[in-house]
Amino acid sequence: MEKRHIISLAGDLASGKGTVSRIMMEKLNYGIYRNGEYFRSLAKKHNMSITEFNLYVEDHPEIDQEVEKSCAIYAKDHDNFIIDARLRMVCCSRII
Questions:
Q1: Residue 40 host element (H or E)
Q2: What is the pLDDT of residue 10?
Q3: Looking at the domain that runs over 6-87, which CATH code has it been given?
Q4: 7: number of CA atoms within 13 Å, CB side?
Q5: DSSP 11
Q6: Angstrom distances, CA of residue 90 to CA of 12, 17, 50, 51, 67
Q7: Mean of the pLDDT values across residues 38-42?
Q8: In this structure, are residues 11 and 18 in contact, taking their beta carbons and an 8 Å threshold?
Q9: Which residues pair with 81 in a beta bridge?
Q10: Cα-to-chain-centroid distance, residue 91
């Protein structure tokens, strides 16, 4: 199996993970996969604001699973990247 070079940064809103991921991206010449962008696209798809969608997700754990699975799908075709995420369940590296 081919080894992937993936760094996962997780934390709460405004915890600094975006800043740290940008610094690491520049130092390592890595790309960034932002789970939040995918999450916002799902909110839009459900015709909800991000606040409404956050509340909706509390009662729909399958959404978290879908968001986290999205990074695993991304990782299958990409290497040398950082996952910037609010991970609530398993890290996508367990899915790969």
A1: helix 35-45
A2: 80
A3: 3.40.50.300
A4: 17
A5: -
A6: 16, 18, 22, 23, 11
A7: 92
A8: no
A9: 6, 31
A10: 9
Q: How far apart are the first and last CA of the chain?
A: 11
Among all chains, which residue has been given the structure tokens 């405004």? Answer: 14
Nearest Cα to Cα of residue 31 among 96, 77, 85, 82: 82
89 close to 65: Cβ distance less than 8 angstroms: yes
Tokens of 57: 């997700």
pTM of the model: 0.71
Mean pLDDT across 12-26: 86
Six token digits for residue 69:
């699975």
| Closest-CA residue to 68 (of 56, 83, 80, 81) | 83
| Confidence (pLDDT) at 27 | 94
pLDDT at 88: 54
